[in-house]
Amino acid sequence: MTIRRVVITGMSAITPLGTSLQQLWDGLLTCKSGIQRITQFDASDLPCQIAGEINDFDPTDYLDRKEARRIPRVAQISLAAAIDAVKDAKLPETMPEPERAGVVFGTAIGGIDRVDEGICVLRTAGYHKVNPFVVPTSIPNFS
User: For labelling alongside 71, which of 60, 125, 132, 143 has CA 20 to 30 A away?
Assistant: First the structure.
């Protein structure tokens, strides 16, 4: 087996410190924390009410409104980061050899919002009302 070289040509970051590499870097250099009170859901009954949320991300900057509503937030952020990385690399949108390109991304527990939504529907309306895409859209690697 021949080991092939990998070249990183573009990078991107969408984080609690900002939605660009520059915002992330500036935040790190100034020791800024991305941790704050939870705002994306009611956490008043939870013992921990802080998290590293991504608050200044707008999926419609990357996707049309209909597509943005259809896919989970983790996929929206993953796609946006991939688009930004391609731009950073100055690669064409249509790659001549797309099978030679890849994206590496990380998430702690992306897609959990879809699981929570599915559980709520299951409890209140029954299994027949649960969206059949709950599982595939909650798995981060499917993003």
Answer: 125
Task: Using the predicted structure, report yes or no on whether residue 136 has a pLDDT greater than 90.
Answer: no
Residue reference for tokens 């998290």? 51
Cβ–Cβ < 8 Å for 27, 52: no
Q: Which residue pairs, CB below 8 angstroms and at least 24 apart, start in 57-63?
A: 57/14, 57/19
Q: Where does residue 115 rank: exposed (0-12), middle (13-18), buried (19+ CB within 10 A)?
A: middle
Rounded distance, CA 12 to CA 7, Å?
Answer: 15
* pLDDT tier, 51 (very low <50, low <70, confident <90, very high otherwise): very high
Nearest to 83 by CA among 58, 113, 63: 63
Work out the mean pLDDT of the chain and round it to a whole number: 88
How many angstroms separate the CA atoms of 61 and 7, rounded? 28
In the 8-state DSSP scheme, what is residue 2? P
Asked if residue 88 lies in contact with residue 10, where contact means CB atoms within 8 angstroms, the answer is yes
* Confidence at residue 141, expressed as pLDDT on a 0 to 100 scale: 64
- Whether this prediction's pTM lies above 0.85 is answered by no
